[in-house]
Amino acid sequence: MCNIRSEIVQKGYPSLHTKAEPVREDEFGTPELLAIIAAMKKALAGEEDGAAIAAPQIGISKRIFVIAENIFGPTHPKYGSKDPHLVFINPEITKLSKKTAIMDEGCLSVRGTYGNVRRAVGATVSARDEHGVPFIRGAGGLLAQVFQHETDHLNGVLFIDRALETWDAEYPKRKSE
Ligand code: ZN
User: Fold this and answer.
1) Residue pLDDT, tens place only, 39-86
2) d(CA 9, CA 31)
3) 57 CA to middle of ligand 1, Å?
4) Distance 53 CA to ligand 1 centre (A)
5) For 122, which DSSP code?
6) Choosing a second label site near 92 at 20 to 30 A (CA), which of 77, 127, 153, 174?
7) Does the annotation count 27 as an active-site position?
8) From 47, 150, 165, 170, the catalytic residue
9) Measured in angstroms, how far is the CA atom of residue 89 from the centroid of ligand 1?
10) 157-to-19, 152, 176 alpha-carbon distances in Å
11) Percent of the chain, pLDDT > 70?
């Protein structure tokens, strides 16, 4: 069998700082691809505050991210959506709103640190699901932020590379706000 692990790697790990490879046409729907996605979902499910995870966060340099069902699935009162798509493969951000905002952010691969990043408040992503079926999803608010954060992961960029300031999670936020 394959040696896919569902452990989340931390900053400094090579896959977090490398541009990930697109999933190839012949990989869609294969047991190998489904195993990677299952490992990502398992890793994400183990993190109470995890909104999403990208494949490089489990050490796999492929262009895949998965959003958390407990936050973006249909049962969440605030962010939930009837859109069934949770798996984004070879995603491309096709549209970003002109309007931006400074948003607080953290990352499962940068434990203990938070920061603030300027992001577009709206984003549209075009992607394919695990079987290769294309879809487009637009979002505002938290999900738009997640789209940008996860796409950054696929390009080897962490939020701390973009953050205007960062702070230790154990301390209150610095500066005014
Ligand atoms: Zn992250």
Assistant:
1) 999 999 999 889 999 999 999 999 999 999 988 888 888 887 877 889
2) 23
3) 8
4) 7
5) E
6) 77
7) no
8) 150
9) 16
10) 8, 5, 27
11) 94
